[in-house]
Design goal:
The chain is of the alpha+beta class. The protein has 1 helix and 2 strands. The longest helix has 16 residues. The mean pLDDT is 84.
Length: 53
């Protein structure tokens, strides 16, 4: 979170989770599920969009 937001801004821990959830929904609508992988304790990993048949 420190890389995404300035030091003087108070942001909830759930803010980034909320953004990721919205991005995942948009990717799912584009038929690209499982592009964002959650790495617990670290963050998220972005993969390739390989549309599911």
């Amino acid at each position: 979170m420190s890389a995404a937001y300035q030091l003087n801004i108070q942001v909830s821990d759930r803010t980034i989770d909320s953004h990721i959830r919205n991005i995942r929904a948009k990717l799912a609508a584009a038929n690209c599920d499982n592009v964002i992988e959650t790495i617990h304790g670290v963050g998220f990993k972005l993969g390739r969009c390989e549309p599911q048949a």
